[in-house]
Amino acid sequence: MSDRRQGSGKLVTALTSLGHGVTEALLRLGFATRFFLMLLLWSGQSFRRIHLTIREIYFSGFQSLLIIMVSGLFIGMVLGMQGYETLQRYGSAEALGVLVALSLVRELGPVVAALLFASRAGSSITAEIGLMKATEQLTAMDMMAVNPIARVVAPRFWGGVISMPLLAALFSATGVFGGYLIGVVFIGVDEGAFWSQMQASVDFRYDVWSGIVKSFVFGIAVSLIAVFEGYDALPTAEGVSSSIKGTVVKSALAILALDFVLTSFMFREV
Amino acid sequence: MSRKLLDLWVGVFVALGLAALLFLALKVGNLAAASFSDTYSVTAKFANIGGLKVRAPVKSAGVVVGRVSGIHFDSESYEAVVNLTIDGRYRFPKDTFALILTAGLLGEQYIGLDPGGDEAMLKADDVIAKTQSAVVLETLISQFMFNKAAEGPSEK
After folding, report:
1. How far is A168 from chain B (nearest CA, A)?
2. By CB neighbour count within 10 A (0-12 exposed, 13-18 middle, 19+ buried), where does A174 fall?
């Protein structure tokens, strides 16, 4: 009897926590939407002091340059090696340029650059805003009639949104260079065929432009998640650390899910 | 860090990003080559287009002279109507022959134009009268089998 009661008690607890979790998630989603609208509303005020946004482009964009370019180079080189390995079996090693360029420009460039950006810049934005909240700097700003969303959040958001497409383009470009380095310089695929086949198959509007649109969407998603997680952090050491974790995990999931959705819209045959 | 230095580095970053975009557009993509400035379009009707896709190249003597801009089905003649956009620099005789060809054994399909001997040239919105459909592998195999079966008993 007591066993059964204990069992049903556990069930009730599980159901309660499930319901609690769902309500909590919906509440946060609602707050995130309100936060995003406020962010857009106050952006005008923050653009009047454009220097703040430029500072954030420096921190999240320029300082991510090295990791983006080195990763792009290595990914391009790996694509060059693996692609050559497979293509030469079918006697079409000249198509290496097409393979490297299309996979970078369409998918790997935007997605991997956004993942790197989320863990390099997104997490530091969350940590910064979260710590500002924990040390009550945001409340202090509010007391001094300085809007923390316009002064702290909006510049970081727009800095990320502006940096992301540029970083993705740099990633793809260094990746193509890496593929060229391995394919043409080391393995010895014909240079003319490498570039000409690439240029014949990569369409600017269809391939390159879709990649840019993708990276722009990822930039919005990652920056929004990063500033929201920081702004919504519990003002404790533990809360800030779990927010940073939330930024990395949620950004990665958002990037991959959005990539699937965008790809299915963009690359439909005819 | 001073505001000036910050601006400088952000400028470097933005310039690098734009340079990468330019590289993707011009060297990787074909922004410069693909856009024919001045084009005219003609149509051709085929009994079967096989695996021809929109944006497939139109070639004459191996040179890309245009692209397939649209494919649709004509429900009156039960034929496929293919719109071709051809570079304005190139002129073709009225009796040009349009064929659907395949690049390599398993490659993509494209349209080949074989110029005829007519004095009059194709104008915009003309229809190419003489066409040859795509070779469909299944039809080819079944024809071959049918012929084999037909001649089979007499040889025995």
Report:
1. 8
2. buried
